[in-house]
User: Fold Thiol-disulfide oxidoreductase from Virgibacillus pantothenticus.
Amino acid sequence: MSKIILFDGVCHFCDQSVQFILKHDKQEQFLFASLQGDTGQKLVFEHKIINDLSSLILIDNDKYYSKSTAVLHICKELTGAWKLLYAFILIPKPIRDFFYDRIANNRYRWFGKKDSCELPSPDVRKRFL
Assistant:
């Protein structure tokens, strides 16, 4: 089973993060779904995930990760030096999430917000649920 990333579909920063992951996920192991969409909401319900639009969520089989832990698990699977960022997993989660929350809580102000989710380009559309 592929790993599924749930993201805020109207956040410019989140959209750019998805584009970054697509570029560095050479094995195409990640699939994507917007937290605002039907599929994202279904996955949130099925996995009993707190519905929090300010958190990136990674579903990996029966486990899910949120906030900084999700980001670090994603980085571990990317090509290049990005996987080295996984070393930050050694920092206690409350400290990591403190910094994650500063960005998440200001993402619309700093990076903007879209009116709706954009359709991905045809070459990557198959990776969106």
The CA atoms of residues 75 and 83 lie 5 Å apart. The chain has a mean pLDDT of 87. Residues 3-122 form one domain.
